[in-house]
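Q: I'm a student working through a structural biology exercise. My instructor gave each of us a protein and asked us to get a predicted structure, then write a short paragraph describing it. Mine is Ferritin. I'm not confident about reading structure output yet, so if you can add a plain explanation after the tokens, that would really help. Here is the sequence I was given:
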Amino acid sequence: MSDKESPFVTLLQEQINHEFTAQQQYVALAVWFDARDLPQLAGFYYRQAVEERNHAMMMVKYLLDRDIPPRIPGFGNIRNDFGEPTELVALALAQEETVTRQIEALFKAARDGGDFLGEQFMLWFLKEQVEEVASMQTLLTICERAGTDYFKIEDFVARETGSEPADPSAPAVAGGAL
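A: Happy to help. First, here is the predicted structure for Ferritin. I'll explain a few features afterward.
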């Protein structure tokens, strides 16, 4: 079996779809917050959407660099109907937990297949998922504590989140990071 047909490459092609779908789901969350005049939460999820797009494009770049043609997929189903902020953050946390399991499976497939380059590539994503899950779990806890006082959530997001400097250890992004 060639590298182009390995279980790792198959899963990585699928993960590109998952990352783009996560991007669109985060856009839907951001728009929901934006429509309710919650700009800090909207901005947080708009930034998350860009981050997911960049993750997908890192995977595209990796495949291109390995001379494996990437497949650019359509998006999966996106949820748009919510009642209150805790629902959105809980969905984001569940999404990040799912992505963590997917990244772990990718790492395992690379290791099991003796694909040392693939294994090394996935290390950054494992670290990233620890941060993503922790961030969403903290935000969910804040939402639960704030109850219906959405401005407490907005204050937390304004105070505790924002753009971080670029991670120099991050994989290259096809077309450049946004």
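A: Here are two points you could use in your paragraph. The chain is about 70% helix and 0% strand. The chain has a mean pLDDT of 94. It's a good idea to check both against the output above yourself.
Q: Great, thank you!
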